[in-house]
Amino acid sequence: MQHFKSHLHDEAGTAALGAALSRAIAPGMAIYLHGDLGAGKTALTRALLHAAGHTGNVKSPTYTLSEPYSVKMDGRDVNVIHFDLYRMGSPEEFLDAGFREDFNGDNVCIVEWPEKADPVLPPPDLHVFLSVAGEGRDVELQASSALGLSCLQRLKFAPNL
Q1: What's an example GO cellular component term for this entry (predicted)?
Q2: Percent of the chain at pLDDT exceeding 70
Q3: What does the pLDDT look like over 103-113, one tens digit per residue?
């Protein structure tokens, strides 16, 4: 499966997808979240982090640009770094902040507003497209690497019907 599409009827559907993704992702992944303001990018990330074992608050790093979280994946400590590049003025800010070094085989990087760092952002393994649709959201996941494809093959998610 190279892509997955679904309709999430409500916030619980978004949370369920985040939990399913937490069980399918692997260290080294870069996940790019696409969608308008309010489409559910941070809600999906929050659900993923909580399902991965983070017990504290998960806030959008709108002003700090990145926020690291330590979780366990398969018994291994892994940093999940949540980026929100909405307020970034230029791709050079991404480089100046040293964020490229976070994209390695050990961390999981989740990036909101990745287009703000084009063309200096490393390529993603998985694109997640979210859009508001009535009371819920439409979501599409697209693998763009072998790691992303492996993630989608491990994904066990039945949309809320």
Answers
A1: cytoplasm
A2: 97
A3: 998 999 999 99
- Domains along the sequence of the chain with CATH: 3-154 (3.40.50.300)
C-alpha 76/C-alpha 107 separation (Å) is: 11
Round to whole Å and give the CA distance between 88 and 62: 9
| E strand or H helix at 79 | strand 76-84
Measured between alpha carbons, how far is 74 from 95 in angstroms, rounded to an integer? 31
- φ and ψ at 142, to 5 degrees? -125, 125
Residue 64: pLDDT band (50, 70, 90) is confident
Cα dist from 57 to 67, 75, 97, 154, whole Å: 11, 22, 24, 27
Record the pTM.
0.93
Token pair recorded at residue 78 = 């892994």
